[in-house]
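User: Quick sanity check before I run a bigger batch. Here is a single chain. Can you write out its predicted 3D structure?
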Amino acid sequence: MSEPESGASEGPKPQPKPQPPPGGELFCLRCGARNDPGSAECWLCGERALSTARPVGPSPGRPSGGNPFVFTIAGGMLVIAVVAVCLALYANAPGLLVLLAATVAPALAIVQVQARRRRRRGDPMSGAERFGCFMVYLILAPVLLIGAAIIALLIYCSVVGGPNFH
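Assistant: Done. Predicted structure follows.
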């Protein structure tokens, strides 16, 4: 008995699925998004051109001078909730609204500036990181404001009270 030649009567062999090169993440050449190893196309834009090399500089599919702030549904819902809380405070206790604005506004501004700087470096902040930074600055801002008020009070009393201030 002779054995059949390999591949002559078996039909077409299935094509092996292309394996990603070792090294982990894949990056889209069009939008720069990170993709899981083994992905066939970009999860964000659908482009099939993926690379293990991180894109440097502006990518061809993304305008370089675009708007750095992206609107999301979650962000819109957060804005609506903040406006509702502010309106309720204004109606019931206007003094608390001033205190809230004095503590929350600097914390939000600092977190947004940090997030924008990190996004420019190519390492965007996650939501948890933003929340953590916001909470730290939310606690830090009143401490600094109270400290500044105490120092201002001491300076005022020493100037107005003169040498009789004890």
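Residues 22-55 form one domain.

User: Great, the batch can go ahead then.
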